[in-house]
């Protein structure tokens, strides 16, 4: 009779496989998941530019730059604005101690501002000096800050407030509703008329 093989080697292999499976199954699932990405912090100079642009004390005008309407200001007005309102620089955090020229140069390097120059550089007949606020601008070749007859246009899209967005949606709907008023049902017409009359009486009573 042939000798029976000892099952010792096969049992050892099974034990090793089972122990490896237990180790693999017992891993912490959180160790395989990649770390969550933290939300990117918004650039402080972008926030600064938005705040300065929305500020009413900075005098600005609209002009045409390469067939595009842009909002621009003068360099000397920017310097006087930051001197009169130093609290605006607090939004820059660690960069708030920079000089006005350095802040403007950073805005230019980040393409938040574009230095412009007047298209018409000669005095027109009948005038004694150049226009203070030219209507047509062109890009200045040297993109550095200056307060000597220099103009700077905002190079980012201004965020619209929520009420403006809602209002831009409401006006077309209101116009369409007014145009369709003649075809309204009779009860609906009476309801609108009585409502308008009630609002007018309320206004008159408040005035009186």
Characterise the protein shown here.
Helices cover 45% and strands 12% of the residues. It is built from seven helices and five strands; from the N terminus they run αααββααβββαα. It has helices spanning 8-25, 29-32, 44-54, 75-84, 100-109, 162-179, 186-207, and strands at residues 61-65, 68-74, 113-118, 136-139, 151-154. The N and C termini lie far apart (124 Å). The model is unreliable at 1-7, 18-22 and 24-31 (pLDDT under 50).
Topology, please?
Elements: H1 8-25, H2 29-32, H3 44-54, E1 61-65, E2 68-74, H4 75-84, H5 100-109, E3 113-118, E4 136-139, E5 151-154, H6 162-179, H7 186-207
- Large-scale geometry: elongated
Question: What's the average pLDDT?
Answer: 81
Instruction: Please state the structural category.
Output: alpha+beta
Determine the N-to-C terminus distance.
124 Å
- How large is the count of helical segments? 7
Number of strands: 5
Low-confidence runs of at least 5 consecutive residues: 1-7, 18-22, 24-31
| Spatial strand order of the main sheet | 1-2-5-3-4
Rg, nearest Å:
35 Å
Q: Largest sheet at a glance?
A: 5 strands, mixed, barrel
Subcellular location: Endoplasmic reticulum membrane
Keywords: Endoplasmic reticulum, Membrane, Protein transport, Translocation, Transmembrane, Transmembrane helix, Transport
GO cellular component, one term: endoplasmic reticulum membrane
Protein name: Translocation protein SEC62
């Amino acid at each position: 009779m042939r000798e029976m093989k000892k099952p010792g080697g096969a049992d050892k292999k099974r034990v090793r496989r089972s122990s490896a499976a237990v180790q693999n199954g017992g891993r912490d699932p959180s160790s395989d998941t990649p770390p969550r990405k933290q939300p990117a912090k918004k650039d402080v100079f972008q926030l600064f530019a938005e705040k300065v642009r929305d500020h009413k004390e900075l005098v600005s005008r609209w002009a045409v730059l390469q067939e595009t309407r842009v909002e621009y200001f003068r360099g000397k007005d920017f310097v006087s604005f930051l001197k009169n309102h130093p609290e605006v620089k607090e939004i820059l955090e660690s960069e708030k101690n920079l000089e006005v020229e350095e802040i403007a140069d950073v805005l230019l390097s980040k393409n938040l501002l574009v230095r412009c120059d007047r298209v018409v550089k000669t005095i027109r007949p009948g005038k004694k000096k150049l226009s203070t606020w030219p209507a047509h601008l062109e890009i200045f070749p040297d993109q550095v800050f200056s307060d000597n007859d220099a103009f700077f246009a905002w190079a980012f899209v201004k965020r619209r407030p929520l009420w403006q967005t809602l209002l831009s949606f409401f006006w077309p709907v209101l116009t369409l509703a007014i145009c369709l008023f003649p075809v309204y049902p009779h009860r609906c017409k009476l309801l609108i008329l009585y409502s308008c009359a009630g609002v007018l009486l309320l206004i008159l009573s408040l005035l009186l």
